[in-house]
Amino acid sequence: MSIGIGRLWIALAFLLASSWAQAEEDKFSSARIPAQVDFERHVVGLLGRMGCNSGSCHGSFQGKNGFRLSLFGYDAAKDYVALTRDALGRRLDPVDVDRSLLLLKPTGQIDHGGGRRFAKDSWQYELLRQWITSGTPWRKGSGDVAEMTIHPRDFRFATKGETGRVTVVAKFTDGSQEDITRYCDFRVNDNTVAEVSTEGEVSAVRPGDTALVVSYRGQIRAIRILVPVELAAGFVYPHLEESNFVDREVFAKLRQLKTVPSDLSEDAEFLRRVTIDTIGCLPSPDEIRVFLADSDPCKRARKIEELLTHPLHAALWATKFCDLTGNNTDSLEPPNPLKPKRSQMWHDWFRKRIAENMPYDDIVKGVLCATSRDGLSPEEWLRQTKSIEEKAEKSFSSDYAERPSLDLFWRRQQAVTIQEWGEKTAAAFLGVRLECAQCHKHPFDRWTQADYRSYANIFSQVAFGVSPGAQKIVDTENAARRKEQQGNPKKQVSQIREVFIGASRKLQPLRDPDTNRPLPAKALGGPEINLKPGEDPRRPLFDWLCRHDNPYFASSFVNRVWGHYFGVGLVEPVDSFSQANPPSNSPLLEALARDFVDHEFDIRRLERTILLSRVYQLSSKANETNRLDRTNFSHCLIRPMMAEVVVDVLNSALGVSEDSIAKGTPDVRPGSRAIEVGPSGVQNGNLAYAFRIFGRPPRTSVCDCERAMDPALPQVLYRMTDPVIQAKLQSPRGRLSQIVQTKLSDEKIFEELVLATLSRFPTNEEKNAFREYRLSFGSREPRTENSTVRGKTKTPKKSSENRQALFVDTMWALINTREFILNH
C-alpha cells in the first residue's frame, strides 16, 4: 500500500512540475514578438537564457554532438556561422521552417541530449521561427551592449513569502534601448534566502540576503536581495554603540534586515579570540587572570596594540603571504638541501616587513617588480648571493630578508609561462581568478581570452637565467662549481642564475585568438603598457595598482584581512572578485579600501580599525534574529583554525613544543612554532600529518581554496588517539606533569587546566562534573599494592601516578571539546 501511495505522489509531483514548466513557457505566449527579430539581441540572447550556450552544453570548449556555440553567446559571429553554415546549413530549413533542427530538437520532437527546452506553441518557438522565416538576417554589432540596468536596483522585501519581478533594460552601442528581461538568465547565489524563476520573478524564502545575478550574452550584473527578520509587534530596534565606521556600515545593513547583533563578548571570549587571530596561540592562564582583573576600560585597545606588535603576529601574516604568493618548496631551484631554507628565507622576508609595518604597496612592489640584482653591480650581487648560500648551508640564518625584493617568487625550478605569471599575480594582488579566461570568455566576469593574454604579455620581459651584463662573471663562477662537483659527485651544487629584465629578448607577445594579431600588454581593466626592450613593464603595472581609483588592489587585500578576522570575507571566496560575486556589504568594503589607501596602505592601522570595532568584539552567542546569519557579521562566527595554529594551540595548552617530543628535522629551524615554519612540506612525520589533515596547502595553486578549512573525521581521531598527542599529555616537561607536582589542590589544578585550554574559568556545572569524575576515579582499583599493619589492611592514599592519570584524562577531555578546537 505504501509503495502505491509513493508512486501516486511521484506521479502527482511530476504532473505539477510539468504544469509549472508549461505555465512558464506559456506565460509570454501571447506577448508581442519583436516586429523584426534581431539575431544578436534576441536569438543569441534566447539561446543563452535556455542554457544552450552554457559550458555544460553547446557552449563547452568541445561543443556538443558536433554543434558548438560561443560560451554564453559572447561571439555572435561564430554563433551565426554555426547555425547557418556549419553542417552544410542543415540546422535551418528555409523551405519548411518547422522542420529546422533549431526548432525540432529543443521542442523534443526529435531526440535531443539536452531534453525539451520549450514547447512548440511557446513564444520562444515563435521567435526563432520568425527569424528563420525572415531569411535569418544578421546585423553585425546590433547586440553590443553599452549599458545594462536592472530595476529595482535592490530587492528589499517586507517579509518572507513576498514576490517581485525584475526588469532588465539594455542600452546598445547604436543608442537604442530595449527591455531584454525575457532573454536574460537569472540565478541567486543562495537559494535558501530567495528563489528566482526563469522569467525573473523573485520569491523571498527566509530572512537573510543574497545576490541575484543576471546575465545576457556574456554581460553580467548583480543586485542584492534583502529579506528582513519578522519581529514581534511593537518591537523597538535597540540603540547600538558604534566604535568606528566599520560598526556604522555593518549596523546600517543589519537594521535593514531587522537583525539585532549579539551582545558584546565577555572579556575571556574576546581575549581568546583576538590572541588566536593575531598570534596563532592561546593566552596563558596568568595572562587571562591579569586581563580579567583589569578594570581599565581601555584594556582591550591596549591588548590589541600589544598583540599587533608581538613577534608571532608577523610570523602568522608571513605564513599567509607565503600562501598568497605560492611559496612551494618543491618548485624552488636545487640543490635539494637548500630548498627548505630558501622557503624559510621567503617566509623571513615577509616576516621582517610585517614586523616593521612596511606599507602594503611597498611589500607588493618588492614581490611584483623583483630582480635578483636590485641595482647592484654583477660583482656585488655575486658576493651577496654566495654569502647567503654559505650561511644557508650551515644553518637557517641568512641575510636574505634584508634584500629589497623577493626574487625567490620568480625563481622556479621549472619554467613558468607568462600565462601562469598572469594567473598568479592576478589572484595574489587583484583577488581575480583568471584561469577560466584562458580558453573562453570568463563565465562569471568580464574577462575575455584577449584580456587574459594581454595581461600575460606584461610578463614577457621577465627572464630567469644569466643576463648579458653578468654573463662573464657568472660563467666563471658556474664553471668553478661544476669542477668542484666533479671532485665530489655526491655533492649537489647550485648554479648561479638571476631574475632580470631581458633587454635582448625577442618580443613575442601572445596573439588574439580570433584575429591572430599580436596583443598589446594591458592591465586588467587598466591601461595598455608599452613593451620596450630593457624596460620593466611590471613597473607601470605596479603604478596602476597603487592608484586611488584602482578597483581591485586595495579592496582585495582589505577583503583578505577582513576574511581572516571574521572567517568569511566581504567578498567570498576572498580571491574571487567578479561581477557575479558582489560584496555582501559594498559600502563597508569601499570605506575600508578608501581608508587603507588614504593612510598609505598601513596594514597595522587596517587591522587595528577592524579589531577595535564593536562588530569584531561581538559575542559568538546568537539571538533569535541573527541565528541564521552567516554573511552580515551580526555575531562572531564559530570557525576552524589554520592548520599551523591548531598545532600551536595544542602545544600552548599542553605546555610543550614539537622539539620536546620529536627531534628537529633539517627542513625546520630549531625551536620554531608551527606558524613560523616557512617550507610547504616538512620531514617531521607528526607535524606533516597534522598539517595535512587540518588543511595546510601545498601552495601549488593560485587559488585560496587550496587551504582547506572544513572539519573532517581524521581531525577528531588525531586529537583522540594520536600517540604523539598522548606523549605530549604525559611529557615530563609538559604543563600537566609540572602542575601535578605542585601543592595545588585538585580543584585549583582543574581550574588551571580549563584556563589553559578554554581560556576561561570553569563553570559550576563543570566543577561538579569534575568532582564526580574524581570520586569515580578514586573508587577504581588502586595502582599500588595494599600494605598490612598489625593484621589490618590499610588502603594507601591515592598515589601520584593515580593523580597524574586523573588529570591526563581531564586534559584529554578538554582538548577534545568543540570549544577548544574552534575559534569563537
General shape: globular
Helix content: 40-55%
Distance between the termini: 51 Å
Characterize the main sheet.
4 strands, mixed
The tally of strands reads 16
As laid out across the biggest beta sheet, the strand order is 2-10-9-6
Look at the helices and sheets and give the structural class: alpha+beta
Average pLDDT figure = 89
How would you portray this structure in words?
By secondary structure, this protein is of the alpha+beta class. 41% of the residues lie in helices and 8% in strands. It contains 30 helices and 16 strands. The strands form six sheets. Strands 2-10-9-6 form a four-stranded mixed sheet. Strands 1-4-5 form a three-stranded antiparallel sheet, with no helix packed on it. Strands 3-8-7 form a three-stranded antiparallel sheet, with no helix packed on it. β13 (521-522) and β14 form a beta hairpin. The two termini are 51 Å apart. Residues 1-30 and 783-797 have low confidence and may be disordered.
Task: Give the topology, please.
Elements: H1 2-26, H2 39-49, H3 76-84, H4 101-104, H5 123-133, E1 145-151, E2 155-156, E3 163-165, E4 167-172, E5 177-179, E6 185-188, E7 194-196, E8 201-204, E9 208-216, E10 219-227, H6 245-256, H7 267-279, H8 285-293, H9 299-308, H10 311-325, H11 339-355, H12 360-368, H13 378-394, H14 418-430, H15 449-457, E11 462-465, H16 471-487, E12 498-501, E13 521-522, E14 528-529, H17 538-545, H18 553-566, H19 586-598, H20 603-612, H21 643-654, H22 658-661, H23 685-693, H24 713-721, H25 723-729, H26 735-740, H27 746-758, H28 764-778, E15 787-789, E16 792-794, H29 800-815, H30 818-821
Parallel strand pairs: 2-10
Antiparallel strand pairs: 1-4, 3-8, 4-5, 6-9, 7-8, 9-10, 11-12, 13-14, 15-16
